[in-house]
Amino acid sequence: MMRRLLFGFILAVMAVSAVAQMLMQPSAESDELFAAGVDLYNAGKYREAIPLFAKSDSLDKAQLDSTSNRRDYSSMWLASCYYKLGDTLTAADIDANYYRFAPVDRRLTVKSDSLLQIGMEYFNQGDYAKAAEYLTKCAEIEKSVLGESHIFYGNSLNFITLCYYYLGNSNSAILFGKKGLTIYEKVLGKEHPNYATSLSNLAGYNSDIGNYAEAIRLGTEALQIQEKVLGKEHPDYVMSLANLAIINAEISNSDATRYCVEATEALSGIVKRTFADLTARERNLFWDKYKAWFERTIHLIAYDMPSDSLAENGYNGALLAKGLLLNSEVELSTLLKESGDEEVAGIYNDLKNLRLQINKLYEMPVAERPLDADSLERVAQGLERQLVQRSKAYGDYTANLVIDWRQVRQKLGDSDMAVEFVSFPMRNDSVMYAAYCLRKGMALPKMVPLFEERQLTSMDKRLYLSSPMLYNLIWKPLEKEMKGVTTVYFAPSGELYNLPIENLPIDGSTYNSDLRSYRRLSSTRQLALRRDGVEVEKAAVYGGLKYDTDTVTLANDSHKYRTAEPVQWSSRAVADSLNLRDGVYELPATKIEAEDIDKALETARIDTKLYTDTIGTEASFKALSGSEVNALHIATHGFYWTEREATQLDGLAFLNTDMPTVVQE
């Protein structure tokens, strides 16, 4: 029952679906069966009431939307009948949460249920003030009709609590949260997951108003209950660990380190275990729950409380988080391709072609789509589910998702250094950049704070290639760590993805690339997974592309790379911003580079395809999927500005040079 499910943990958004049929009521036939069943139940005739509630429940499940909170009353009464007859197992199977409680007559809660549904709809829309208004009215009716100690009333109070929390009114959240907690203690008892969840949320609200001692007390009590009732691997227990780490870090309490490290290790385990059974879409939704911990929180704590343990923890978290969703796709794809199973290969190719169909459909206006994209999505989900299950016969594709920093260190040479850049929001609305550094001889990774993003974005972009300002911001703080280093393997973050940080001026005549080699990676985890002796067999090289290619040429080109799909190409305007400005339309030097690389690869007898001019299009790039290309080079020199940025610059003045040959090349 939607209303019976309690919210999750601190900062967690309630997973309540949009209410499509919020005010639908059970049918007249169901109501008659329900009423007759209630009469028999109240007369102690539980066995006679069972078939009536079973039929009513069957009708409700068939006729009411799954989000309707009018849908599960009959199952509550049905479970209670079995419980009264001593069949606890059947009762728990029907309604595990409420079979022990006195069931609620749905005829008394028509108005309150409607108010609850409306309130939850406002909650989903982010209108927490309106949500609180309707939920408060709902709670008042429940208190009057069901009593001030009823579980429904307690649940509504906790929903109201969340509304006030999201409105920034932590004091009111604490007030309503305490009332809800009192009801849970009385009805459920202290050793119950919902009671522990309420404690954990109250800890968060107290932390928000600076009442850290109380927050730690409540959070610790919640953690102890969850460990006893749920176990240390349960997500609720792990999130309570994370919450305690955050609260303790607010006051620089050393306990934050222990909680932070334990939470990261446990959450990494949950990700690895859970991903193995999920499709790509499910992995996306699952990762949304936990990514803030790996992408922000652990780095913020490591920055606030510098220590070897937290630097180690932060680096491990970054190794997991960067490119996790893409990495999981690649690992699964590799495992399936190496299986040698022709049936699996057939399913994989069917899925790949179906995804191409779906992508083409999404590129077209809804009214012009010849097929229903949602229906194809469901078919694709089914195929992917088959592949996920079949993959288990050939190995664990999640084995390489959780990489430890020691595995990276093992692959480093004496003069190598790994640098994992991270960027994370601070409490003052600023974004901080830092680097996790690792060398072969280091006992542990080291976190080096670098700069705030506003220092970078406020810099005159015309000075990027003519001044050491950018180098001083990014690399100079790492000079001590880079002493004796000849090769730096680095993975950028945030704005650093858009900057040529491997080739920055140090002074008037020296660039950082003159001093050592810099190799850009998506994540330094790639070092741990590097296979020694892997040979390139097939390559694709792009360079000298025509950025202002007309749409007719693009449409014609797309037909060269058709896939098995019924959707016809729909010619549409190209919105690339390079077409919207009077600037550089092509980069001639990239064609020279691409041709030189193509010749070198051919000399090495590597099967190579060169894409230049109008041949190197988006369609040609997409067609590489499944072609077994294991080396790809795209020559892309220069900067890319948004229209707003471009209008603020005078043509190519950002290069700050009078040498036309430099501009041309």
UniProtKB/TrEMBL annotation:
Extent of the signal sequence: 1-20
PROSITE patterns named among the record's database cross-references: TPR
Repeat is among the record's keywords: yes
TPR repeat start-end pairs: 112-145
SMART domains in UniProt: TPR
Alphabetic keyword roster: Repeat, Signal, TPR repeat
InterPro entries, per database record: CHAT_dom, TPR-like_helical_dom_sf, TPR_rpt
Pfam families named in the record: CHAT, TPR_10, TPR_12
Domain CHAT: 470-645
Protein name: Tetratricopeptide repeat protein
Organism: Candidatus Limisoma faecipullorum
